[in-house]
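Supplementary Methods S3. Input chains for the assembly prediction are listed below.
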Amino acid sequence: MSTKLKDLVQKPELLSGGHRMCAGCGGPIAVRQVLMGAPEGKKLVIANPTGCLEVSTTIYPYTSWNTSFIHCGFENAAATLSGAEATYNSLKMQGKIEDDYNFVVFGGDGGTYDIGFQSLSGVLERGHRMVYVCYNNEAYMNTGIQRSSATTLGAWTTTSPHGKESSGKPQHRKDLTAIVAAHNIPYVAQASISHWRDLVRKAQKAFSVDGPAFINVMAPCHRGWRYPMEKTVELAKLAVQTCVWPLYEVENGQWNLTTKVRNKKPVEEYMKLQGRFGHLFRKDGDREVLDKIQEFVDHEWKKLLRMCGEEEE
Amino acid sequence: MSWDISNIGQWTWKEHPPGAVIKDPGNSRQFKTGGWRTLRPIRDEEICNQCLICYMFCPDSAIKAAGEKITTFDLDFCKGCGICAEECPQNAIEMVDESKAQEAVE
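Predicted structure tokens for the full assembly:
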């Protein structure tokens, strides 16, 4: 399958305009790029757990999805879609359905890292043939920017404020991509909207495997991260270039680095553009937190290089 | 499939489909979000080399292509975020004040 732009622009648009996501949102960019990797000639069933994407693309009586769509609760999108997939398999076996279907969940980090995690883990263990995409903007943006377990250390959110007693979120984020990889499913990947060819290729692979596939996509949110809206793709790119968000895939247990980073930039270059880290850069800012973030990123990057069999710098 | 919702304000519960099923895929096309825009992207067709990068980054599916080429920015849906102008490698897209752009057209 092609990842040439000239071929991708000719594919049908599966997410219509007219949705109510913010101007400059990274979420629909992630959705469009993933759907460009969907196989042609197959129909799609899409589910969303609660999140910006769900409430903004399916405001009754309008939907932006040119596919089948199931509206789910926060905790059960993966479970709901696994039921749809099992039903489809049964009907297909009985000859009651002719068309071929693929199943996709688009969940935010709240619906994936936290609230929907156990139903996701269940789906991965049971081995349903579906693609789970987490569009990760590192907080609960839909309800007004509350911290999630995907939020970076030191980030301001409404539930991790900064002030005399606090420098933003006190904990590091959890490594969900590695947790999913530990389920030993056929395909796991980490991607970013800025690296569109890499993401489309990963989506193509995810759709092609016989079993569950998971893609964790960096999709910045300018409302929650506090930066000008036109910088969404720029920030996604910087997340990769600073190794805050390395791009890799785990195919049948084999870890591969898909984007090599030469001349890794310091995390400050990525963080100083975002108001959510603004308190760390003030005169009285907590430099220690900045150092801790750099240390964490360096540590995780080295660990990843080892996992992927790459040479350390 | 068309699903006529022009009188939905007058519907009783009997007219609404069970489960609030939306019967027309992609019908948000009828909901124009162009009015959100304060800046309008203007593409200089002479500078644009049809690299198609902007198409990949539009959150609102508002950049329209025919064949292998960008044809137009659909102002019914473009919210004016400016990602296309920011990411254009040729700097062929300029964001201009929406009210001035409207005046210029009139």
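The interface with chain B takes residues 5-6, 8-10, 13, 15-29, 32-33, 57-67, 69, 193, 196, 229-234 of chain A (CB under 8 Å). The domain at 5-307 of chain A is CATH 3.40.50.970 (Rossmann fold).
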